[in-house]
Amino acid sequence: MNYLNLEEEKVLPVVSELNTLLADYHMYYQKLRNFHWNITGENFFDLHEKFETLYSDARIKIDEIAERILTLRFHPMSNLTDYIEKSAINESSTDLNDQKMVEETLFAHGILLKQMSKVLKKANDIADEGTIDLIGAYIRELEKSSWMLNAWSKNKNEKLKASVSS
């Protein structure tokens, strides 16, 4: 691995955490496809489009995570059985209402963000700047998507906390 300036045995913990993130993203992707296909009701148009946007983004990230693992000179996990076993994100029912779909999506975001933090910690331990850069951008994007979904699900009377001025 001379071109990466990383030692193979030190990279393995990063790869392991990236494979878990890959499994999580696969399960998240399928959850979003389920919601996209099965959303009904007055919020159909908004959420049908939003779920498509989210799963399209997840599909790109799945490929980028797998390619990062390959760049680190390891094979990415690639079997559905392994994804189901490894992921902390569970499948969802097809008959959820819009609020529950958004709630489950936000819960999955929490799992993804937690796993991304684990990847970052392992990558920081070995100064793996490529992985740090990739995952840092993912965190920023997912936090913004989470904020937007959370805002959608709030009651109109709920307010944000006031900023403290110095």
List keywords for this structure.
166 residues, mainly alpha, 5 helices, globular
Task: Spell out the blueprint of helices and strands.
Elements: H1 8-38, H2 44-71, H3 80-86, H4 98-125, H5 129-153
Structure description:
Helix content is 72%, strand content 0%. The protein has 166 residues and is an all-alpha fold. 32% of the residues are buried. Helix 1 packs across helix 3. The longest helix is centred in the N-terminal third of the chain and has 31 residues. It is globular.
Gap from first CA to last CA = 50 Å
Which radius of gyration do the C-alpha atoms yield?
Answer: 18 Å
Largest sheet: number of strands, sense, barrel closure: none
Number of distinct helices:
5
Task: Please summarize what this structure is.
With 166 residues, the chain is mainly alpha-helical.
